[in-house]
Design a protein that fits this description.
This protein is an alpha+beta fold. A hairpin with a 2-residue loop joins strand 10 and strand 11. The radius of gyration is 23 Å and the shape is globular. Belongs to the Tdpoz family.
Length: about 325
């Protein structure tokens, strides 16, 4: 009889937290891109933060929602789930999960749960961490003639999902963008985006429709976003016009609640901020709640103010986000002092 071995592939930790939202009526006035942080939450050897908003828009309604943010860089791939409603693989500090839609504001206010302008949410956080390579290497190796089950010939899940999207196998909904049709799968869309979850499985008419019209996104931008939903990657960001693609995708990601894609676009735009792109990107950062990107663009504009003022992007910035001028003036004054 051959020897048998047992080892852990992952570590897991679970914690339940009660969050009381005081001053609910004041939080209703928050902007769509604003959120309030919780205190630091130690779970699974890492520190986390929950963000709260009462102004997330989905299915044309305002929702109360939460999302989870990792505050410190993980030493290995770390997955976290919030009460089973959303899960995310965290790879870097500052990364956040998708928004978890708790309840429509109208339903919350009619439920009687708000007492003295406050209500409480119970949140369960489960963290699963891969065993580091040096620990895994110490485990006994499997016999050479035993192949791992379901190896998929070395191809990743993202590869298979990408093929599923490309071929349209089993597609049960068609997304129509400016006349172009994209066959897709409701369950995959809903699992990745709270906006798609609300529209495809909520009370909207799209729940029973085989065809859904998507507005305010260009077909090529939507195609790139759909590729991210299925594969967690955006090859278009590495092309020659990757900065322009990132600008369009940032707005689309924010609209659909795809925080992972939003972070990827933000990092691309931070690295690609130039005199020519800074003003346009600053307007996007202001509109879609990207503080790191905003700070980088303000820095570039302040250092090259005359050149940036000559660009078309600067005219758009002043027309769409005039209040950002205060940040620019402070930055320019800071460089002169």
């Amino acid at each position: 009889m051959g020897a048998s071995f047992s080892s852990n592939l992952t570590d897991a930790a679970r914690a339940v937290h009660m969050f009381k939202i005081n001053g609910y009526s004041a939080t209703r006035a928050m902007a769509r891109t604003d959120s309030l942080p919780s205190r630091r939450l130690p779970v699974g050897g890492y520190h986390w933060e929950l963000r709260y908003t009462a102004s997330l828009i989905a299915d044309s309604n305002h929702w109360v929602a939460l999302k989870l943010v990792l505050l410190a860089a993980p030493t290995a791939t770390t997955s976290a789930a919030v009460d089973g409603h959303v899960s995310h693989a965290f790879k870097r500090a500052g990364e956040s999960s998708a928004w978890v839609l708790i309840l429509r504001r109208s339903a919350l206010e009619a439920s009687g749960a708000i007492v003295d302008d406050a209500f409480t949410v119970e949140c369960t956080i489960t963290v699963i961490t891969e065993i580091p390579d040096n620990v895994a290497a110490a485990a006994p190796a499997a016999p050479a003639n035993v192949l791992p089950p379901f190896s998929g010939r070395g191809l990743s899940l993202s590869h298979h999902l990408g093929e599923l999207l490309r071929r349209g196998t089993g597609a049960d909904v068609t997304l129509v963008v400016s006349g172009k049709c994209f066959p897709a799968h409701r369950a995959i869309l809903a699992s990745r985006s709270p906006v798609f979850m609300a529209s495809l499985f909520g009370d909207m008419k799209e729940k029973s429709s085989r065809s859904v019209e998507i507005r305010d996104i260009e077909p090529q931008v939507f195609g790139a976003m759909l590729g991210f939903i299925y594969t967690d990657s955006v090859p278009e960001l590495d092309q020659q016009d990757g900065v322009v693609v990132a600008q369009h995708l940032l707005a689309a990601a924010d609209m659909c609640g795809l925080d992972g894609l939003k972070i990827m676009c933000e990092e691309k735009l931070i690295a690609g901020a130039t005199v020519e792109t800074a003003a346009t990107t600053l307007a996007l950062a202001e509109q879609h709640g990207c503080p790191r990107l905003k700070a980088r663009c303000v820095e570039v504009v302040a250092a090259n103010l005359d050149a940036v003022m000559a660009t078309e992007g600067y005219k758009h910035l002043m027309a769409s986000s005039p209040l950002v001028m205060n940040d620019l003036l402070r930055a320019v004054r800071g460089r002169k002092s």
